[in-house]
Design a protein that fits this description.
This protein is an alpha+beta fold. The protein is built from 8 helices and 7 strands. It has helices at residues 7-32, 38-79, 94-151, 156-187, 199-217, 235-251, 302-307, 312-322, and strands at 195-198, 220-225, 230-233, 258-265, 269-276, 325-332, 336-344. Helix 1 (7-32) packs antiparallel against helix 2 and helix 6 packs antiparallel against helix 8 (312-322).
Amino acid sequence: MKILTNRKIKRLFCRVLLSLILFTLISVSCTLLQLKHAALYVLLSCAGMGLSILAFLYLYFREQDRIMEEAAAQIRDYLSGDKDARISCDEEGGLYRLFHEVNALVSILNAHAENEAQAKSFLKNTISDISHQLKTPLAALNVYNGILQAETADTPEIREFTELSEHELDRIGNLVQNLLKITKLDAGTVLFEKADENVSDMMRCIEKHFAWRAGQEGKILSLSGDDTITLFCDRTWLMEAVSNLVKNAFDHTRKGCTIRIEWRTFASIVQIVVLDDGSGIHPEDLPHIFKRFYRSRFPVNDSADAQGIGLGLPLAKAVVEAHNGTIEVDSEPGAGTAFTLNFLIPTKL
């Protein structure tokens, strides 16, 4: 029987069997010898046998409980980050076969985690190398394009061509930078330097960044929120996330539209909302807008569609989630779009 391969179970069976034999012999002897009060002796013998068996069972199950607690402790250590945690499985039997399979599963998970880390590192290094290689020719092309612009002041057709070239070069530069940022986030190589930051300060910096574009495109960028609200975050990366949402709003609104950034605090969260009164997002596109390189099939206008490269929203989502936050979108065609960022307040958890 496989159950008896475990020496502790075998020892328990032997002890119970010996108890049965011993106390049975005592009972039979008392009966055959016709001792006075034989019935009492038989009763005491049965009670002794029962107590002995209970004692053996108690000791066995106490030992099993200790083994299970040790196994659970090793599993908790593994879940806490100790990749070398293993359950002792030197004995024979079904329970130890289970422990062996758990150890094998841990080894497989470690191997998968290592392979995934290597794949992410390879991807990060590859994208970094490509981005670095692209920066040099892009810089050269920008210089050449600037020279052409300076030489074509009297040739409107060629000057228009150079302005279009400059616009496309800027788009390529933004794409390279966003690819590099989102790859670093994927690979887990970004070290967030978090501190208590004033939300109003960050939003006003974003406002200054987009002030020139708002004036050029005839749009209004407004801020609304409590100047005392703070958020525990990495200032640079959080501003990057919100800036991408604001840029998305600029890309998908017409002249005269208003883009608003609002922030507020509740009992346990800080909330930042980026709203616009543009044409909104089509319902069929809403489930996909945070996918990389996804571009709406229902653009607000031709210029907006031309500007999108499909990385701004995924990058914003990755940054927000890296801050243990959530991002939600609410949009209706013809009524505008609102992106809502929610961040838990650690001191109130």
